[in-house]
Specification:
Largest interface: A-B, 29 and 25 residues
Bound molecules: adenosine-5'-diphosphate, magnesium ion
Number of helices of chain A: 10
Shape of chain A: globular
Oligomer: heterodimer
Order of helices and strands of chain B: EHHHEEEHHEEEEEEEEEEEEEEEEHHH
Radius of gyration of chain B: 21 Å
Strand order of the largest sheet of chain A: 6-9-10-3-11-12
Shape of chain B: globular
CATH topology of chain A: Rossmann fold
Radius of gyration of chain A: 18 Å
Distance between the termini of chain B: 21 Å
CATH class of chain A: Alpha Beta
Largest sheet of chain A: 6 strands, mixed
Number of strands of chain A: 12
Strand content of chain A: 25-35%
Amino acid sequence: MLKINNLHVKLEEEDKQILKGLSLEVPAGEVHAIMGPNGSGKSTLSYVLSGRDGYEVTDGEATLDGESLLDMEPEERAAAGLFLAFQYPVEIPGVGNMTFLRTAVNAQRKARGEEELSSGEFLKVVRAKAAELQISPEMLKRPVNVGFSGGEKKRNEILQMAMLEPRMCIMDETDSGLDVDAMRLVSEGVNALRSPDRSFLVITHYQRLLNHIQPDVVHIMSNGRIIKSGGPDLALEVEENGYGDLLAEAG
Amino acid sequence: MSDTAVKTKVQQTPQVSGAPKAADALEARLAALDLPRGAFASARGAALTRLRDMGLPGPRDEYWRYTDPRPFNTPEPKPLTVEAALESPLFTGRDKLTLVFVDGVFDAEASDDLSLEGVEIATLAGAGAGHWAADLFGTLETAGQSPVKRPFAALNTAAAQDGLLIRVTGKPSKPVHVLHRRRAADADAMWHHVIRVETGAELTLLESGMVGARSNGVIEVDLAPGAKLHHVAAKRAVDPRVGLSHVFARVAEGATLKSFTLSVNGHHMRNEAVIDMDGDDAVAHVAAAVLGDGDVGPFHHDDTVFITHGAERGESRQVFKKVLKNGATGVFQGKILVKPGAQKTDGYQISQALLLDEASQFLAKPELEIYADDVKCSHGSTTGAIDEDALFYLRSRGVPRERAIVFLVLSFLADALEEVEDESLRDEINERLDAWLTTRPQI
Ligand SMILES: Nc1ncnc2c1ncn2[C@@H]1O[C@H](COP(=O)(O)OP(=O)(O)O)[C@@H](O)[C@H]1O
Ligand SMILES: [Mg+2]
C-alpha cells in the first residue's frame, strides 16, 4: 500500500534537513506505529506525505499503490485515498462542519468518478457515524473545530476519516490530550475502520494507545530515520526503558 | 501596503489656489442637471447654497485622500459599454413589498402597491409641499456636514430625481425592498430616501439590484425613541460603474440601527455612513462585506464611517471586511467620536482586508476621538493573506484548492455577515456569495 524509500526532506526556507533517508513499507490491511522522541521528524513525515507546502524532497520517493504521491496536489492525494488526522486540527470560523464534510466527501467522489451523495444520503450517514463517536448534532452544525475541546477536535478528525473512507490513514498523535473515555471512543472508531484493504500509520508518544489499537509493526524513529522496527513488544520496551538504549544502539 | 493612522485628527486642507477653477467645475456639474427639481423647493435651494459654499472636493482634500473624487465631479458619467448581466433576484422566497427604481426613478408600474399596514410610503417626485417629510428632508444631511464636509450629499439633496418617503408607525408584516434596475447606458442616477421610524416602530429595508453608470444615493434615517431599522443591502456590479452613497442617521433614546451592505465589484465606489447617537442607550451597527476583483475593471471601494456618541450608554459597532484581488484597492476611514458627557459609551470598530494577491492593497484610517472618561472603545485594522494552514487542512480532505479558497473567503467575511440579524436573510446572502465566488468570472 504505502512505500517510502530513502526519503530525504529539508525545509524550503532554511537549510535544515529533517528526514534523512527514511524507508518504510505498510502493506494493505496492516497497522504500523511510529514512535520516537520529540523533534525526530514524525509530523514532518506526515505533512510531506500529505502534501503540505514548505518542504523540499531532495531524494527518495513515496508511493501509494505504486503511484508516486510526491507529485500530486494535496487534494489529489486525498482522492487517491490518503488521509491525515492532524496533530493540531485547524479551526475555520464561519464554515459549518457539515458543509465542509459534505464538500470534502463529494469532491473526492467526483475526483474518483463516483456519483456524489445527495444531502439526504449524506445526512443519514454522517448522523450515524457522529453518534458512534458521541459527536452531537449541535457540534456538527458548528464551524469547523471552533470552540471544540482538544478531545472533540480529535474525535472530529476520526469522524472525517470515517466519512472519507481513505485507504491509507495517517494519525499524528491523535491520542495526545485525550482522556480515557475519549481515547476509547477514538480507538473504537479506528478499529471499526480496520479492514483488509485499509492501512494505518499511527504516530504516537505513548504505548497506551497501542493497547487499544493493536499494531502489526512498531517503528522507532529518531533524527529523521527509522532506527528500529519490530513487533508490538517494541512499544512496551520503549514504555519501560525510554528511547535511551535504542538510540545508543543505533549510534 | 498598509497605511494606518491611529488617533489622527481630520485635517482640513486650505483651498488656496485653483478655487475659481473648482467653482467652474461645480457650475458645469450643476448645469448638466437641469435644476431646479421636484418638491421641497426651499430645502433644495438651501442645499444648493450649501454646496456652492463648500465646492466640490479636489484630489488634495484630506477627506478624499484615498479616493479620487474626480469621477463624481465630471458633468457627465462615463457611459457603460457592458450590457447589464442577467442576475437572478435576491431576497426571493420571502414576503416583501418591492419598490422598483429604474435609473434612480421610481417605476410604479413595476412596483408593488404602496400600501402596507404600519407604513406610509410616498415618492419624493410625487410629494407635495405639506408632506410630513418636508420638515425632515435635508436636515440630517445638513447636520452631517459638520465637522466634515460632504458636498456630494448636498448635491444630492439639491438635485435628487426621486426617492422614497417612508414613515413607519407600527411593525409591518414584511420588509420593504428597494430593487434597482438600470436602463440608460449613461444614467446619472440620484435618489434620496427619507425614513422616519416612530416611537417603538420597526422596519426592515432591503436593497438590491444594479444601478447605472453613475449613482449618488442618500438615505436620511430618523429613529424615534425605541424605534428599529434593519437595513440590508446587496449590490453587485459587473461593469465599470461609479457610485456614491450616504446614510445619515439620527438614533434617539433606546433606538436601534443595523445596517449591512454587501458590495461585489463596481469600479469606483464610496459609501459613507454618518450616525448621530443622539439619545441614551442608542444602538448602531454598521457592517459591510466587499469583494473586489481588479480583473473585471479597476476596482476601488471606500467605506467611510463617522459615528458620534452624544449621549450615555450608546453601543456602536463597525465591522468592515474586504476581499481584494488583481490589483483591487480597498479603503476604510472610520471614526468614533465620543462627546463630553457620553459616559459608558461602548464603541467597537474593526476593519480587515484579505488580499488574495500582492497587487491589491488596503488603506485604513481608523480614528478614535474621545472626550468622556468612562467609556469602552476599541478599534483594530488588519491586512492579511489566505491562511496557509487552513488552506492545507481543507485540501488534505480532498477539497480542491479553488473551493477551499471560497471557504476561507466566506470564513473571513463571516463576522460581517453575523451583523445581519435575520438568519434566513443571512443564509441567503451567504449562499449567493458562495455562488458568486464559485462561478466567477466576477470574482
Ligand atoms: N516549518 C518548520 N520550521 C522550522 N523548523 C521546523 C519546521 N518543521 C519542522 N521543524 C523542525 O524539524 C524537526 C522535526 O519536527 P517534527 O516533524 O515536528 O517532529 P516530531 O513530530 O517528531 O516531534 C524539529 O527540530 C522541528 O523543530
Ligand atoms: Mg509531531
